[in-house]
Amino acid sequence: MKTQPVETDLLQQIDLDRLPRHIAIIMDGNGRWAKRRRLPRIAGHRAGIRAVRQAVEACARLGVPYLTLYAFSVENWKRPHTEIKLLMRLLREYLKKEIDELNRQNIRLAVIGRIQELPKAVVHDLENALDRTRQNTGLRLILALNYGARAELVDAVRELLARMKENGSVTADEATVSAHLYTRDLPDPDLLIRTSGELRLSNFLLWQVAYAELWVTETMWPDFQQKDLFQAIIDFQKRERRYGGLGLS
User: Which of 90, 220, 241, 243 is 20 to 30 Å from the Cα of 101, by its Cα?
Assistant: First the structure.
């Protein structure tokens, strides 16, 4: 891992035996980053891809098993059509350009969200990337695309109602609900990172982050570097996770 002196110092502070199993990131601030530089919003999204590369590479080499990135929400369809079109183009570019690197790093790609509502060309490229990385056994990189936590819960309820109609009954408990979420085969996030200083979840993994540790940075996503990820992990490792119970102190 190529690191600067500050990153090297932070890296040495990380206990590799106590890494978060699953890190989730709300990648926020691309538009504001561009606006501050008097650049078009798409310039911020392009710069954000560099930050994606850094986060993915850092997690893969540290040995973090799961990384989920909030890439496109169901609310993002409200943005101007031109911006949405450019975002879809950037996604396709990323999938095509990064597939060989993902395979080199033994990274397996996964996707959560209402994927079939995305443009057909995007769905095609996603399916191709999923297939080409299916045999990889390292970091599992999950892209949340056309994702919303409320939509996920609605879809889970629809599945449960269909199951009840078919079987006549259904068990109503947390395990059953979890088994019908998009993330049914993933562990819940241990650490949720949000960039740009905003203090909200933005309809992201509302069920799954019930006991996640939250780490918020003022850094805009395009400026997010490996040192920021290392600092988040260090802070995570200093916390006492109680899961609603009493602490030891």
Answer: 220
The set of long-range contacts for 152-155, using a CB threshold of 8 Å and a minimum separation of 24, is 152/112, 152/113, 152/181, 152/182, 152/207, 153/177, 153/181, 153/206, 153/207, 155/114, 155/180, 155/182
Sheet of 108-112: strand order equals: 108-112, 140-147, 66-73, 22-26, 191-194, 213-216
- Cα(151)–Cα(148) distance, integer angstroms: 5
Q: What is the pTM of this model?
A: 0.94
- Residues 128, 134: Cα–Cα separation, whole Å: 10
Q: What is the pLDDT of residues 165-212, one digit of tens each?
A: 888 888 889 999 999 999 999 999 999 999 999 999 999 999 999 999
User: Which entry of 15, 17, 76, 155 is annotated as an active-site residue?
Assistant: 76
Q: What is the pLDDT of residues 146-170, one digit of tens each?
A: 999 999 999 999 999 998 988 888 8
CB atoms within 10 A of CB 174: 9
Are 220 and 29 a contacting pair, CB within 8 Å?
Answer: yes
| 28 catalytic residue (yes or no) | yes
The domain locations on the chain are 21-146+189-236
Q: Which CATH number fits domain 21-146+189-236: 3.30.110.70, 1.20.120.10, 3.40.1180.10, 3.40.50.740?
A: 3.40.1180.10
Check if 76 is active-site: yes
